[in-house]
Write the structure tokens for this entry.
Amino acid sequence: QVQLVESGGGLVQPGGSLRLSCAASGSIFSIYTMNWYRQAPGKQRELVAGITSGGSTNYADSVKDRFTISRDNYKLTVYLQMNSLKPEDTAVYYCNAFLGVYHDHWGQGTQVTVSS
């Protein structure tokens, strides 16, 4: 069982930056694909960024060149560096650890609000 705890959310002005962290429990963290999703009010949850166990990354078109996902397997932590934030980035951000249908774990989420 993998438990995930997100942190780093908050209120930021447009153009600002935030760094989200997701701390995981479990010694097999390194083999999971780690993802960040977000869900804005009235919208479906969407994949923002993902990083495989081998370090390959993928991003939603809306965040490319602004967000960077990374992982530290020694610290059992995945990060999402968010730069040039826009009001439309406002959402609850969720950390996800995925290894298959029966190994799909979620954190509780952290609120990110981009507003002046």
Notes: DSSP finds no helices and eleven strands in the chain.
